[in-house]
Predict the structure of Peptidoglycan bridge formation protein FemAB.
Amino acid sequence: MTAALRLQPISRADHLAFAGSRPSVSHLQLPSWGDVKPDWRAESLGWFDGEGRIVGAGLVLLRAVPRVRRCLAYLPEGPAIDWHDPDLARWLDPMLAYLKGRGAFAVKMGPPVVVRRWSAEAVKEAIADPAARRLGDAEPTSYDSRAADLAERLRRTGWRPAAAGGEEGFAAGQPRYVFQVPFAGRSLDDIQRGLNQQWRRNVKKAEKAGVKVVRGGYEDLPAFYGLYTETAERDRFVARPLSYFQRMWTALTAEHPDRMRLYLAHHDGDVLAAATMLTVGDHSWYSYGASTGRRREVQPNNAMQWRMMCDAHGLGAAVYDFRGITDTLEESNHLLGLLRFKVGAGGEAVEYVGEWDFPLNRLLHKAFDLYLARR
């Protein structure tokens, strides 16, 4: 029988030290992310072995439910534990007991475990195949049976797959499908060769047209935000307020100066595109992007992404993560163009096991699901 683990709150310093001992953890599982979410109460939790060493950590966000003295507990893209331990209960049971004691009626978590991967070529073939309506209909390039086993073990112990939702309010959710470009062991020349012909042509076109990509600071966030609101209207999503990005910049750069970067693509004195990049350990994420419809022919987005990829490579990234993609391959889907853009960078589509819910109070959890469905 495996030894029991003890769970207790830990300091920000201990949490950061543990995160720093791993190749990478999600930026959503760092203490600074709690500062970005003022509507949630954040706690750092640590798992300890019999010798008192921290062997796992997680950031939990707690949010009170209107008119009820209970809260929802959420661990986005976490916690950072041994997900393939045959005795998973020794990790999750202490967490559930602790959060129940903190007044949680339900726990939502997102194990950072990959199930399937599709090469860029496989994704392109799937998009061209009229029989493939979703990415899951296509044959994966690789498959991890341990992830499928993890999903089955979670189901057996009372966890259930979370319903897909937006990012606003209680319908918190992280993407199950993302697009990543592996960098480990690759030169920049090799990564550039992995771009498709259109990407390489567009990067050269932007350079020839005089597009300049520069790094910005806090004072440039309003310029980014102007493009972001235009993008939100064009792509039909709800924009976050400027204060969110200002808070994000302040919190993340205070934790590490390179945790968050801002890039802006200039052309003839006008900012045409802007994006944020986050880095934790050897993982860099393209986080938020924005662009105008003006002068698209000078290809500012390709130029900006290539600069970000070059800088991520210079920081020692093992992977450049384009974040969420749609898994719907039908031409009517307005997000298909974004998928095609990301696939052009080479790399692979990645499916995680998704987010999971554990109802600690079934009645409240059911009422909460109904509340979300009516919003």
